[in-house]
């Protein structure tokens, strides 16, 4: 059941940019104008920009803060009771995994944070996650079949899903993908993806997958050790993060049910940053060097070594690229 605050917010969002009469809101809910005024003030305290004018009512401008109800609205009410927004967490990935220890999940859930104190990617590599300028979220994706999926393809297809949404919001940007899970602009990393399986110990199968996505949207300042390596997508504009995550989460969820489609690996290849580049691939305690020939149908990286022999790698981390 909707609260007064939720009802008022959804009405303002439906008529964003237009004036909404406070009298009409009160009449529709059969409550006092004072109750509407209190709901408006509560919404403002949560970061909603709402202007009021005598004889006109209220107009919704936007919200730079992350908000469950706003994200749910932009998702077409897809995530009602299925999205959790936090101001700060260690990492959304850890919060999602902790949630799974005490809950049985039967539908996709979204965990979003404005700030991560211990954001991380693959192999525990830190991901800088400052407040207000990025998008950091994880999804729990139930796997009813308990099959161990093709993780390589799941990661590459998710990367395509994320970039497709980014391309809608940043039409002038040419996003590229660095195998297997990094999102780049030019030679700078702007985001990353981590894929983890939650195992059912009784059946030794994957009961859920946890997809973590981190994006530096408008971040300007980075720690010294990251300078020259990372940047924000566009520090000069403010993207509506609530709308962005609503669209991106839906795209990732839709992709999960169709992640092996051949078109997705082809889309990944088109955006590959590495084809034709000399790279160093770290494999545990060893490493190999070679020229990237392409991305195989199973998502693996195809390298040509000094001998001219082709090798495919399903795991590893590209630690150096000769730009």
Automatic annotation (TrEMBL):
<dbReference type="InterPro" id="IPR030855">
    <property type="entry name" value="Bifunct_BirA"/>
</dbReference>
<keyword id="KW-0678">Repressor</keyword>
<keyword id="KW-0436">Ligase</keyword>
<keyword id="KW-0804">Transcription</keyword>
<feature type="binding site">
    <location>
        <position position="189"/>
    </location>
    <ligand>
        <name>biotin</name>
    </ligand>
</feature>
<dbReference type="InterPro" id="IPR004143">
    <property type="entry name" value="BPL_LPL_catalytic"/>
</dbReference>
<dbReference type="Pfam" id="PF08279">
    <property type="entry name" value="HTH_11"/>
</dbReference>
<protein>
    <recommendedName>
        <fullName>Bifunctional ligase/repressor BirA</fullName>
        <ecNumber>6.3.4.15</ecNumber>
    </recommendedName>
</protein>
<keyword id="KW-0092">Biotin</keyword>
<dbReference type="GO" id="GO:0004077">
    <property type="term" value="F:biotin--[biotin carboxyl-carrier protein] ligase activity"/>
</dbReference>
<feature type="DNA-binding region" description="H-T-H motif">
    <location>
        <begin position="22"/>
        <end position="41"/>
    </location>
</feature>
<dbReference type="InterPro" id="IPR008988">
    <property type="entry name" value="Transcriptional_repressor_C"/>
</dbReference>
<dbReference type="InterPro" id="IPR013196">
    <property type="entry name" value="HTH_11"/>
</dbReference>
<keyword id="KW-0067">ATP-binding</keyword>
<dbReference type="InterPro" id="IPR036390">
    <property type="entry name" value="WH_DNA-bd_sf"/>
</dbReference>
<dbReference type="GO" id="GO:0003677">
    <property type="term" value="F:DNA binding"/>
</dbReference>
<keyword id="KW-0805">Transcription regulation</keyword>
<dbReference type="GO" id="GO:0009249">
    <property type="term" value="P:protein lipoylation"/>
</dbReference>
<dbReference type="GO" id="GO:0016740">
    <property type="term" value="F:transferase activity"/>
</dbReference>
<feature type="domain" description="BPL/LPL catalytic">
    <location>
        <begin position="78"/>
        <end position="260"/>
    </location>
</feature>
<dbReference type="GO" id="GO:0005737">
    <property type="term" value="C:cytoplasm"/>
</dbReference>
<keyword id="KW-0238">DNA-binding</keyword>
<dbReference type="InterPro" id="IPR003142">
    <property type="entry name" value="BPL_C"/>
</dbReference>
<feature type="binding site">
    <location>
        <position position="116"/>
    </location>
    <ligand>
        <name>biotin</name>
    </ligand>
</feature>
<dbReference type="InterPro" id="IPR045864">
    <property type="entry name" value="aa-tRNA-synth_II/BPL/LPL"/>
</dbReference>
<dbReference type="InterPro" id="IPR004408">
    <property type="entry name" value="Biotin_CoA_COase_ligase"/>
</dbReference>
<dbReference type="Pfam" id="PF03099">
    <property type="entry name" value="BPL_LplA_LipB"/>
</dbReference>
<comment type="similarity">
    <text>Belongs to the biotin--protein ligase family.</text>
</comment>
<keyword id="KW-0547">Nucleotide-binding</keyword>
<dbReference type="InterPro" id="IPR036388">
    <property type="entry name" value="WH-like_DNA-bd_sf"/>
</dbReference>
<comment type="function">
    <text>Acts both as a biotin--[acetyl-CoA-carboxylase] ligase and a repressor.</text>
</comment>
<dbReference type="GO" id="GO:0006355">
    <property type="term" value="P:regulation of DNA-templated transcription"/>
</dbReference>
<dbReference type="Pfam" id="PF02237">
    <property type="entry name" value="BPL_C"/>
</dbReference>
<dbReference type="GO" id="GO:0005524">
    <property type="term" value="F:ATP binding"/>
</dbReference>
């Amino acid at each position: 059941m909707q609260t007064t605050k939720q009802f008022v917010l959804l009405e303002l969002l439906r008529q964003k940019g237009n004036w909404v009469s406070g009298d009409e809101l009160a009449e529709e809910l059969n409550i006092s104008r004072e109750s509407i005024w209190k709901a408006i003030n509560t919404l403002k305290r949560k970061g909603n920009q709402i202007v009021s004018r005598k004889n006109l009512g209220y107009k919704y401008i936007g919200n730079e803060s992350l908000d469950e109800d706003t994200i749910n609205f932009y998702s077409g009410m897809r995530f009602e009771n299925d999205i959790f927004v936090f101001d700060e967490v260690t990492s959304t990935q850890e919060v999602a995994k902790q949630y799974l220890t005490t809950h049985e999940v039967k539908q996709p859930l979204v965990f979003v944070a404005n700030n991560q104190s211990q954001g991380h990617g693959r192999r525990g590599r830190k991901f800088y996650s400052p407040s207000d300028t990025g998008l950091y979220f994880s999804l729990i994706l139930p796997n009813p079949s308990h099959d161990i999926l093709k993780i390589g393809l799941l990661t590459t297809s998710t990367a395509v899903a994320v970039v497709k949404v980014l391309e809608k919001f940043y039409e002038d940007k040419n996003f590229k993908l660095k195998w297997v899970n990094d999102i780049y602009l030019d030679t700078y990393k702007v985001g990353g993806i981590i894929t983890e399986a939650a195992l059912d110990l009784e059946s030794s199968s994957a009961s859920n997958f946890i997809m973590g996505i981190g994006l530096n949207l408008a971040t300007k300042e980075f720690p010294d050790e990251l300078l020259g390596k990372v940047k924000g997508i566009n520090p000069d504009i403010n993207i509506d993060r609530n709308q962005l995550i609503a669209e991106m989460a839906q795209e990732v969820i839709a992709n999960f049910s169709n992640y092996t489609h051949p078109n997705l690996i082809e889309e990944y290849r088109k955006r590959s940053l590495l084809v034709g580049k000399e790279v160093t691939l770290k494999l545990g305690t060893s490493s190999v060097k070679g020229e990237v020939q392409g991305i195989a149908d199973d998502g693996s990286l195809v390298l040509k070594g000094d001998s001219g022999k082709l090798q495919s790698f399903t795991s590893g981390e590209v630690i150096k690229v000769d730009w």
